[in-house]
Amino acid sequence: MNAITKMLHYAKKHFIGREDQLAEVRKKAEKLSAGEQEERRTVIFTGERAIGKSWLLQRLAELLAELGFTVFRVDLKAYANKPKTDKPDEEVAVANILLDLHRLWGEKQSPGGASLAELSRNVLEVVRKQLPEKPLAVCVDHVYESNWNLLAALEEYVLGPLAIEPRVLIILAGRGRLYPFKTPELRLKVEPEELVPFSLDETIEQLTVQHKAAVPLAEKIHAISGGNPGANDLLAQHPEAPALALDEVLEGMLDPVPPEQRQKVREYLEALCVLNAFDEERIPPMLAIYYNDPETYDNWKYAQARDARELLTRWAFARWDADQGGYVLHDMPRRLLEQYLRKAHPNLWCDLQLAAKQLYNRWVGMYQRNKSRWENEHHYHEDQLQKMSCSTTR
Amino acid sequence: MYAYVVFVTLSGQTELGSALSVITPDTNNNFLWPETMESTLDESTSWLQWLHRLGLHFDPFDTLNAADDPHLGEYLIEHEIFARLWGNDWAWVFAPPGGGKTALRCRISQTCWIGQETNRPFPIPYLPPFLSWSNVAPSLEDHFGALAQAAAKVLLLTLAYRPHWTFRLPQSALPEIHKALAWSLPGPLQNYLDLCQQTRDLEQLRRALDLDHAFALPNPPEVDVLLEWCTIWTALPSPTTRPQAQERWEALLRVLLEVLDFDGGVYLLVDGLDAAPETVTLPEAVAEVLAPILAAVAPWAQQHIYVKGFLPAESQPLLTTRYPELFSTPHTNTIQWTVPLLAQVVRRRIFVATQGDFDSLDAIASPALRGLEAWLAAAALPLPREMLVLTRRVLQEHFKRKDYNSPLQETDVQNALRWYRAARPNIIQVDNQL
What we know:
The structure holds two protein chains of two kinds.
Chain A: H1 19-33, E1 42-46, H2 53-66, E2 70-75, H3 76-79, H4 89-104, H5 116-130, E3 136-141, H6 148-163, E4 168-174, H7 184-187, E5 190-194, H8 200-210, H9 218-225, H10 229-236, H11 246-253, H12 259-272, H13 283-290, H14 294-297, H15 302-314, E6 318-321, E7 326-329, H16 331-344, H17 346-366, H18 371-387
Parallel strand pairs in A: 1-4, 1-5, 2-3, 3-4
Antiparallel strand pairs in A: 6-7
Helix pairs in contact in A: 1-2, 4-5, 4-6, 5-6, 8-9, 8-10, 9-10, 11-16, 12-13, 13-17, 16-17, 17-18
Chain B: E1 3-9, E2 18-24, H1 47-54, H2 72-75, H3 79-85, E3 91-95, H4 101-112, E4 122-126, H5 140-161, H6 163-168, H7 174-184, H8 189-199, H9 202-208, H10 223-234, H11 245-259, E5 266-270, H12 283-302, E6 305-312, H13 316-322, E7 332-334, H14 339-353, H15 372-379, H16 384-400, H17 410-433
Parallel strand pairs in B: 3-6, 3-7, 4-5, 5-6
Antiparallel strand pairs in B: 1-2
Helix pairs in contact in B: 5-7, 5-11, 7-11, 8-9, 8-10, 14-15, 14-16, 16-17
């Protein structure tokens, strides 16, 4: 296998689209600059993996600086990696964030503070003195992927006190479920927005500025990626045969996972990607087929299946979906995984579909209270088998 | 490998307590997610270990008293009602007993304490002290006395939690605050300061002032700072006279709005009318108790004193008829507990306890059980507390069977429902007595 395909790093010249989001933030920023009241001063961008949240945040940071804001950027992913000390990590991280904020205002001397609360008060006092001169924009990335203890401390000592200031604009970006902030300005008076995949035109525009050689294959790339800008980027790095590059693209998608866990995550993802939803009951039969090892996996305990499920949710490939009554894989990875299996391992894909169909067939008989839900799933897999012209006997 | 530190706090209300886990990462991981615990749980497994294994970082159904719940703010549902309560105007919430009024009041109080400055409203919880009045038709003067006492108690505790407010005030402002406190506290101010100095613990002060947990502010001061704060107030002379209630109340308002300069004004949180035999289920009595305050609601709003009333559902028609402008639609909210809303109560708690991992009992239940919250909500009495009791019972039924390596089963639900049906007549009886 070649080296892992890496996504492009942000550069203004490579950024396209998201005009509505830029306009919305610009409008708020201009009001704050003019000293006008703006009730909703927190903007939240969410969206699936590689949809472009971090890129948008970086573009906004540039824009806000151009508009005369002091811009404070925080990437919570970076703060999670600070060396251990005798204090809880979230306290160390938030203290570092406060010190960075203090330095941003050109303060050379330490703000002092025997506790995090005192440090926060001292730094906020400096910030408040500067705000009449220059508004502040706080851009925080990887918010919802972060540990809740970190978010609680961040709210308590940084975001909560800043959010009430009328000349502070807060922009949060992250993947996953929204954290239940307690501060009204971070929870009730917010502008939440989910970033959607690019249209075909936007995909063409993206390839034009990022990978010109891949523009002729834009339609093909878009069909595979579903318009996810990160997937567009990865696929376009193999313009000669984007579909065959799926394997590498999937490896690229697994980049955040520690190397020792990567293969297992990839295998679990492949085994489960055919399902609309899964849980601890559905994992063992799918793994039994995937590994062709029913003896092991059919005897898996519930807790073993939970460990497998947790591996996928921990690395944010899956999330609970109440409507589906199970965990669902995020759109982009699932779309790519299914395409990869169909093309690279069609027999395995058929086997997995058949196993799913048989599982739901059993459940229709076993679980009368939810019979119609499992009937629908049974029909779904039956359709998939027919579409792929799989043999239905094993 | 991750390190786990689990702090267990016994609530004193139940045998099981609650727990918070703090998970620390090693330096190779970008995100702070818990690694799974041992896959197999044995006979000695505790309730909390089992919950943790299910993915719950604490027991979200343990605390039934909203004021004692440290996660209350995170559980919030009915955002629209909170949003309408939170703001520079008067507002009312009508709900039955146990219908979430106190939870909302506590939530409002806690929100006032966000940050460490005076740029949010100052909350005064006001539970009319019927026992100290000779009748159920208190005068405005009666209310002023009780209001002043309620305000003084919260102000003293808040000042103790935030000594930096005192330190940055000009010396000349201190006697006015000292006087306002000394006039209206239920006991001598020096006694409370002595308690602080002796115990060095603001939890003791909170208890002495008879304030609920909602008034335990985050970030208490270091001991030396607290002692320095006590010394400042101890050095001031006590007032020798005590004026009438109205003057005492106005002195406190002056301190809050002018000396300490609370930007968001004062929130007067009126609650507890359905907890007292004098007013419960008697709309006429509620109206009579509130009458002097209701006359002051609009003028107070002009002075940045905003009344937020948490009132019994039964009193809504009468109050709306008698005071149509005060209780007009924009000011009035009614909590009605429907099956979907009750299901949401449980789902929200699971969401918070799993730190967003999942938000339904379905995630820890057999495929035979989907839509489990709605099933339970339909069986429980339509109050959040009932829903929490029944939900916890389902988990307990499963735990009792020591079948730690399987999801919740239909038998757990049926056993819990049987238990609940047997317990329910008592609950109905209590409701009827109320």
